[in-house]
What does this fold into?
Amino acid sequence: MALALSMRGRHVLLLDLDLRKPALHKIFGLRTAAKNGIGQYLQAEKDAEPPLIFSEKYGISLGLTAPAAHPERLLHSEKLKKLLLAARADERFDYVLLDSPPMLLSADAEALSALSDLSVLVVRQDYTPAGIVKRLRRCAHAERDGFCRIYPE
It folds into this structure.
């Protein structure tokens, strides 16, 4: 999505907020940039500028990360809320996209949805059970708090 927006001339900030098993640094070939990334920024006591990099190759700004301790605490932190407010207000960015962990594996995606204007669920064809997708569609139409909770039956 970030690349498609960038190709249309939009300025995009993509934050890897899958603090348990981040993958964006692998996708963009920037493994070393993740070592002192967003997760480590959120853990730091002192205030500093967020570790954002611009990829000339892809035309997007990135906030990468390495796995972080206590991701559930970091995703509910005031520091993350301030970071997202600042990113939204930053005139350099038309869009701020948050990459989260899989929704069914942890509550992290739900925590991030509370900080988002919109959540997009990506499912894998011939892998994600159709029943889960149907329940998500029903829930999305109900528009409860902008997010749907799915529990195992």
